[in-house]
Amino acid sequence: MTSKAVTAPGAAVSPDPRRASDSRAPDSRATVTPAPDRSLLSGARRIVVKVGSSSLTSIKGGISEEALTELADALAHKRNAGTEIILVSSGAIAAGLAPLGLAKRPRDLATQQAAASVGQGLLMARYTHAFGAHGVTVSQVLLTAEDFMRRSQHTNALRALDRLLNLGVVPVVNENDTVATHEIRFGDNDRLAALVAHLVRADALVLLSDVDSLYDGPPAHGAKRIPHVTGPQDLDGVTIGRTGKAGTGTGGMVTKVEAATIAAGSGIPALVTSTGNAAAALAGKDVGTWFSVNGSRKPVRLLWLAHLASVEGTLVLDDGAVHAVRDRHTSLLPAGISAVHGHFEAGDAVAMVSPDGTVIAHGLVNYGAAELPQMLGRSTKELGKALGRGYDRVVVHVDDLVLV
Q: What CA–CA distance (Å, rounded) separates 395 from 352?
């Protein structure tokens, strides 16, 4: 068990109305005031449920038929009662270990990809059978972080998921481990689930593992359950575990708390509990730890930029630029940059820091690291005249910038 400080998600800058198409237009779900507690789950219209590898598989036994069937029973019952369910399921890599004769989760990317390729089919076959017993059809949806970076791709993902839900299907979402590279991986499906919940405008996010709740210390040492989290301040000093009991997961309670905090800070309540409590949780019963909403909804692309983007460099801002970006929510101009660090190309994510090194924002930069030094401290008008058209743009547009 290790101590983990949980930080609040960044507050996103409101996008330019001319680019409001970056996120889906609000629907009935976006206008309903959420219930203040877990009772919301009993009548929710759309829920994203994430289950971890440690709840479904083991290194020795592969997929646990009993655990998977119990989960499918609970989710199918909820779906047949009228709630739209999206299941974000880990377990593909873990399911592929035994068939490949691997004794433990591989560390190298190529072997992880091979295990995922074998395991994903096995996992979906089990889900198809288990949900089918209740007359519920499931589908496979594989995503990478890149699908949330570009508007056209996350729009297509949303369209596909919406249509599947309209047809009564339960989409089973997983990271596309077979093709994802280190640079574009989510790192853990808990974060993927938080993004999916925002993408589909879910009413709630439920994160399942092999631990029934968040505790204020090691449960074996008499720690007390934390039933409700209203904000990051409630977790100050809390010791949070990292790995599941089965040894097949990647994040443990740390990433679940991070994902729940991201969701709650961006307008979606979240519940963290055990897979065995799935039915009780979906019925709105007092199980697990409930993370109540403490922020407003944001475009999914800005959520990705704040929490998942691979930051390739740093722009040091002067005091005036810090005030403009942080307090006035404006674009970043070259005149306000005092230094550039790192190697990045146009379109990469960069961190914007104050003179003392405090990170204030992430953004997508319009120029590469090799171009920027000649531009520092100069106005866009001056640069346009001196260097030609194309150099009169802002360095980071406000629509591509999120405070952290």
A: 11
* Pair 70, 281: CB distance under 8 Å: no
Nearest to 74 by CA among 131, 125, 120, 123: 131
Beta bridge partners of 403: 361
Phi, psi of 22 (to 5 degrees): -60, -25
Joined tokens for residue 186: 């989510």
DSSP string of 193-246? Answer: HHHHHHHTT-SEEEEEESSSS-BSS-GGGTPPB--EE-SGGGGTT-EE--S-TT
Question: Which residue is it, tokens 């989710």?
Answer: 75
Distance CA 50, CA 211 (A): 14
Does the CA dihedral 123-124-125-127 come out positive or negative? positive
- Token pair recorded at residue 4: 């983990």
- Summarised one tens digit per residue, pLDDT across range 199-236 is 899 999 999 988 899 998 877 778 889 999 998 888 88
272 by DSSP, 3-state: which?
strand
Residue 343 pLDDT: 93
In sign, the C-alpha dihedral spanning 365, 369, 371, 374 is positive
Higher pLDDT pick, 174 / 5: 174
CA 64/CA 95 separation, integer angstroms: 9
Q: Taking the alpha carbons of 157, 160, 166, 168 in that order, is the dihedral positive or negative?
A: negative
Q: Which two tokens stand for residue 99?
A: 């068939």
Per-residue model confidence (pLDDT) at position 244: 47
What are the Cα distances from residue 148, in Å, to 70, 199, 302, 308, 404? Answer: 31, 9, 9, 10, 18
- The neighbour count for residue 201, using CB atoms within 10 Å, is 20
Token pair 């999206």: residue: 86
368, 381 in Cβ contact below 8 A? no
- HEC states along 321-386? HHHHHHHCCCCECHHHEEEEEECCCCCCEEEEECCCCCEEEEEECCCCCCCHHHHCCCCHHHHHHH
Evaluate if pTM is beyond 0.90.
Answer: no
Q: Is 219 exposed, middle or buried (0-12, 13-18, 19+ CB in 10 A)?
A: middle
